[in-house]
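Hello Y.,

Per our agreement to keep a running log of every chain we model this quarter, I'm adding this entry. I've kept the format consistent with earlier entries: sequence first, then predicted structure.
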Amino acid sequence: MKSSVLNAMTVDVEDFFHVSAFEEIIKPEQWQDYQVRVDRNTRRLLDIFAKHDVKSTFFVLGWVAERYPDLIKEISKQGHEIASHGYAHRRASEQTREEFTADVLRSKNHLEDLLGEKLTGYRAPSFSIGYTNEWAFEVLAELGFGYSSSTYPVKHDLYGTPDWPRFAYKRPEGIVEIPIPTLKILGKQVPIGGGGYFRLYPYSVARKLVKQYLKKEQQPYSFYFHPWEIDPEQPHVQGASFKSRFRHYLNLDKMEGRLESLLTDFKWGTMKDVYNIDVVQKS
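Predicted structure for the entry above:
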């Protein structure tokens, strides 16, 4: 029986060559040398969501929006929420305040001009707002964003704020932060928010963890993934480390089926549908 709780479905709209796992061997000036697959993969996701009558939040990379404006318009036309994923998929923790502001503003201005409406949400690439750059929340508030989903309270080699709040909360800067979900198991915060972790576990395990989270925490759950994760035929990047290749390519051939099961087993909506940005009771 499907849970009655409305949870947030989110998609980070980027291509396989944008990911942080490959950033050391694929530079932005080389992106044009790769076969772009994000348009086709995202349209496939739109078909899957329509089949299940699900609305999602799409955190769109500005680089993608500039090249595929019709795709972004179609996402919005189908009733999904458009939010910003920055412009060039550079981690916020690797930028100065001025660089971060310019990157976010470029994406925000382009998307708002394209759609004729204001954006509410932002997600930093690789959940890269943390201990060293809390000023990023000030920038987001100054630029008029209502919420961010840019932190993951776990320990990870690329990101992580394990002692920060696990649930949506209003920050002193005035912006609401919606962390990626974790579940406490034997005193350890286990990542259960999607992405590579969702592909790592058998679906039966992932479903059980989501159900435990909903029952134990009495909080809505949010899920994230990328269009390239339903594309097992994407080119294999040469020169990446074993760890990067394992994380990126693991079980891509199973992802679409697992996604359809997830859409069937739980109730989904956009970030704006699920979270009341003005009133957040638990931190």
